[in-house]
Design brief:
Blueprint: H1 5-19, E1 69-70, H2 73-108, H3 110-121, H4 126-134, E2 148-152, E3 155-163, E4 166-170, H5 176-189, E5 193-197, H6 203-221, E6 227-230, H7 235-243, E7 247-253, H8 256-263, E8 269-272, E9 278-281, H9 287-298, E10 311-315, H10 319-328, E11 332-333, H11 336-346, E12 347-350, E13 359-362, H12 371-378, E14 389-393, H13 398-401, E15 408-414, H14 417-428, E16 434-438, H15 442-452, E17 456-459, E18 479-480, E19 486-487, E20 494-502
Parallel strand pairs: 1-6, 4-5, 4-7, 5-6, 7-8, 9-10, 9-16, 10-15, 11-14, 14-15, 16-17
Antiparallel strand pairs: 2-3, 3-20, 12-13, 18-19
Helix pairs in contact: 1-2, 2-5, 2-6, 3-4, 3-6, 5-6, 9-10, 11-12, 14-15
């Protein structure tokens, strides 16, 4: 379904001519534009604006929007709905052009936007923030959508993938602009417009990208506000999006609380929920390769990826040699005393409600922290540039049981393969998100794949291979494990429409 450039030009010229009288307002009346948190200069396109306050029941006021950034959910939803109708008039060629615009801008601005997001969120690694935007070119677009046809004695049936309309989407702070970008590519390719409620910690980064995408889309296609976002997102704005009559579908990338709220909203929700990806290393594994793969996946953006290796279960017979392989590959090992010191800082005990059991609570200030910072908390000194810390723990340790999103990998010593898989499954908590195995034994691969029943299962590779990075496949930053859609594609955000012609058309 690759569109002819001549067709795109013809469609665009026609639509722009029809819309020439509906150009965006200019001047004052726009919400403030995001600025970097640090004195370092941000992207050149970001300039301060003044804000008009209105009264639309959103708490922060209505006011005019600039290039998709709104203070009011109702105004954002109505603008997104109008944009969806205009996109519909452009057909598949228009969608393809919009996707091309988004991919090109994401790659061209990867360094500036990655730096801006790093300055705002203060988590992860700058080089990987940049890389996450560059690889959005691997997210599938309109080419993914193909009709299905049936032909028989009763006639001909055609099934096509149709858009929902306006999709309400939630973004995580861990990958604000990359997740936004990947969602836009998938959702717009499917013919939808989008209304984002970003995490407050990454809202300014989201607004920056939304403005730039909309400017280019309006310039090339004549559509305003195809992508919208709430400037100051709150739980109240999320609730308003869930309830808004013009929001036809919800797409959630976040933790258990927001996923549960979306699933209780009464709307269909596609939910990329939590994960705690586990690894098993058996006695047949190529240990040097396994160590390199664990570092590649777990150290990426300081282990912020939801698919990143979080705990490794290693057979007793190769445990010490695997530790040596990790050290040779550049990872730094913590001794028991250092592990205890880091654990005291990384987790706190929260009393159970109503006299219930207490639980370990993650210190969110350490999420995405550099290995060197974690080493200092442990009373250790990691070698300069060490990408990852590791330490031996038992299977019940908080670093094993929690989705900790830090570049510190716990290793659990296991008596045999069956017990390794059993403990890994318990630590994964039946999220059915991601799992990895390093083995040359095909029976072991099959056994673990069946036991784990995860959306992504990688054999003898880094976790990122599951998203087509070092393995075959395609990329998405929203992996809908909770609701079962899996790695999202444009098809995920469509509804099936069937057209039936009875008799008489068939020529065979």
């Amino acid at each position: 379904m690759n569109p002819d450039p001549a067709i795109i030009r013809s469609v665009v010229e026609s639509v722009v001519a029809r819309l020439s009288g509906a150009q965006p307002a200019t001047g004052s009346g726009h919400p403030p534009v995001a600025q970097p948190m640090s004195p370092k200069p941000g992207p050149a396109a970001v300039t301060p604006q003044t804000s008009n306050q209105g009264s639309c029941g959103c708490g922060s006021g209505g006011g005019a929007a600039r290039q998709g950034v709104f203070a009011c959910v109702d105004e954002a939803a109505r603008a997104a709905h109008e944009a969806h109708l205009r996109l519909k008039a452009l057909g598949v060629a228009g969608r393809a052009k919009a996707v091309e615009i988004v991919k090109t801008l994401a790659v061209d601005n990867a360094e500036a936007w990655g730096r801006f997001e790093m300055e705002e969120t203060r988590i992860g690694r700058l080089d990987h923030k940049i890389e996450k935007l560059k690889i959005t070119r691997n997210v599938p677009g309109t080419e993914w959508l193909r009709p299905a046809a049936l032909s028989g004695d009763g006639g001909i049936t055609l099934e096509e993938r149709a858009p929902f309309g306006v999709i309400g989407a939630v973004l995580p702070v861990t990958h604000s602009v990359p997740t936004l970008t990947g969602n836009v590519i998938n959702m717009v390719a499917a013919g939808n417009s989008v209304l984002f409620n970003p995490h407050p910690g990454g809202a300014r980064s989201a607004a920056l990208a939304v403005r730039e995408y909309n400017r280019a889309i309006q310039r090339e296609l004549g559509i305003q506000n195809l992508i919208t976002t709430i400037e100051e997102p709150t739980l109240e704005s999320f609730d308003a999006i869930c309830k808004h009559p013009q929001v036809a579908l919800l797409a959630i990338t976040g933790g258990p609380a927001v996923v549960n709220a979306a699933m209780k909203s009464g709307k269909r929700a596609i939910c990329a929920g939590p994960g705690n990806p586990v690894v098993v290393v058996d006695e047949s594994a190529d240990l040097a390769r396994a160590a390199s793969c664990v570092i590649e996946g777990a150290a990426f953006d300081n282990n912020l990826l939801c698919i990143g290796e979080k705990a490794v279960f290693v057979l007793e017979s190769v445990f010490d040699r695997f530790c040596e392989a990790l050290a040779r590959a550049g990872a730094a090992q913590l001794d028991p005393r250092q592990l205890d010191a880091l654990t005291q800082v990384a987790f706190s005990v929260e009393p159970g409600k109503g006299g219930g059991c207490s639980r370990q609570v993650l210190n969110r200030d350490l999420i995405g922290a550099d290995p060197a910072a974690l080493a200092r908390h442990a009373g250790a000194k990691a070698a300069d540039g060490a990408p990852l810390l590791f330490a031996e723990t038992d299977a019940d340790h908080p670093f094993v049981q929690q989705e900790q999103m830090m570049p510190m990998i716990p290793l659990v010593r296991c008596a045999d393969f069956e017990s390794a898989v059993r403990q890994a499954k318990q630590a994964e908590h039946n999220y059915r998100h991601s799992a990895i195995i390093h083995t040359l034994d095909v029976n072991h691969m099959t056994h673990m794949a069946r036991e784990m029943d995860t959306t992504i299962f990688v054999k003898n590779g880094a976790s990122v291979a599951g998203l087509g990075l070092g393995g075959e496949g395609y990329l998405s930053y929203s992996i809908a494990t909770t609701t079962g859609e899996g790695i999202t594609t444009p098809e995920t955000f469509t509804r099936v429409r069937r057209c039936v012609l009875v008799e008489n058309l068939r020529i065979v």
